[in-house]
Amino acid sequence: MSSSQQRSDPEDRFGRVLVSRAQIARRITELAGDLAQRFGSSELTVVPVMTGALMFVGDLVRQLPIRMQIEPVSVSSYPGQSVRSQGCVFRLPPPDDLRGRSVLIVDDILDSGKTLAFLRAAIRSVGAEDVQSCVLLRKERPDVPDRPDADYVGFDIPDEFVIGYGLDYDGAYRNLPNIRVLAKELRGPA
Ligand code: IMP
Ligand code: MG
């Protein structure tokens, strides 16, 4: 095999790598350290936002030595091939009683912030006492000045549509191990 063949990654056809799997792994270790300090010995309810947070929450909670429940939710905001939020609706709602609980919302990416605002309100409305949020990626969105912010952030990224490590485009590419900027050729007309 020639050296150029060794260097080429067949997954590059999906788009260039923005955050590598090694960078993700290192940052998750740091985040887990911060979260373990924040929550100490208190019992936690982790609320991953499916399906995007699937890989992230799995890697994160395995580094959190805290007694916890995991209560996934699903929020639909990107039907089909659209790349901007169209508003939120629960496909899988949170538990209807979180009275007195410490809750950690875990999501793949903060974009417009609508998902986070929607979830925080829903979780507070069922009695959670302490609601924190952790996102792997925070997209630069200067056009949304009053965006709600996450308490814990893995990486700040430019305003690009990204796929991989749980993030999808039209349901695909979640299983790519690196986070990539979706190649223009793969983007639909929406
Ligand atoms: P927000 O409500 O606009 O903050 O969007 C948050 C949700 O939109 C995330 O949970 C993702 O599911 C999805 N999303 C936003 N940006 C991207 C992206 O670049 N790639 C894939 N999904 C995204
Ligand atoms: Mg999502």
How would you sum up this structure in a few lines?
The protein has helices spanning 3-7, 21-39, 54-61, 114-125, and strands at 17-19, 44-50, 68-70, 73-76, 89-92, 102-110, 130-139, 152-157, 162-163, 179-181. The chain is of the alpha/beta class and 190 residues long.
Explain the layout of strands and helices.
Layout: H1 3-7, E1 17-19, H2 21-39, E2 44-50, H3 54-61, E3 68-70, E4 73-76, E5 89-92, E6 102-110, H4 114-125, E7 130-139, E8 152-157, E9 162-163, E10 179-181
Parallel strand pairs: 2-3, 2-4, 2-6, 6-7, 7-8
Antiparallel strand pairs: 1-10, 4-5, 9-10
Helix pairs in contact: 2-3
Please provide a written account of the structure.
The chain has four helices and ten strands; from the N terminus they run αβαβαββββαββββ. The protein is of the alpha/beta class and 190 residues long. The strands form two sheets. Strands 2, 3, 4, 5, 6, 7 and 8 form a seven-stranded mixed beta sheet that branches. A three-stranded antiparallel beta sheet has the order 1-10-9, with helices on one face. Helix 2 crosses helix 3. The radius of gyration is 17 Å and the shape is globular. The mean pLDDT is 93. It binds inosinic acid (IMP) and magnesium ion. The site of inosinic acid (IMP) has 18 residues, from strand 6 and helix 4. Magnesium ion binds next to strand 6.
